[in-house]
Amino acid sequence: MKIFCQYHELLKVADLLLKQWPNNPNIHSEHSIQRQATVMLLNGVRQPIVISNLSHKITKGHKRLKAAELNQWTEFPVQYQDYENEDREKADVAADNATSQESSLNLSVVNSWIADLDPTFDIEAFGIPNFALDVSDFAEPTLKKNPQDKDASLQTCPSCGVLIETNR
Fold this sequence. Notes:
Blueprint: E1 9-12, H1 13-17, H2 30-43, E2 49-52, E3 58-60, H3 62-70, E4 75-81, H4 86-98, H5 107-114, E5 144-145, E6 154-156, E7 163-165
Parallel strand pairs: 2-4
Antiparallel strand pairs: 1-4, 2-3, 5-6, 6-7
Helix pairs in contact: 2-3
């Protein structure tokens, strides 16, 4: 596990499982948890799990916890936060997911980044379900013969490095 966020300490995942918010209103599909696990493997941990100093329960990061468990990690970074009362604590639990549901992702912007990515970059790191490059946003790449191939019909795309079979 690579950690790229500030945190107070590392806690055992087994202990964190006991600190889950009871009746958490935020529901995550197995597919969403799997995507989160993949993103954390590829990009590292960028957000800690948040634990309330008031209730000693997780207020943010239940999906990250499930993804850590799926990745078979034994520890995860946590941050402790103070809440003025139980009402504010509950509000933060719900708001953690409610506010993110109102945003959307502009895929044309993401597509515009693709041409500049290293050819070995794993597109799964974006965490976008069913993401596919929209090639209509780019000029037709000029193909060149792959010197390792004896067959002249196989060429390498200079933009993405993919071998492409071409008609002669």
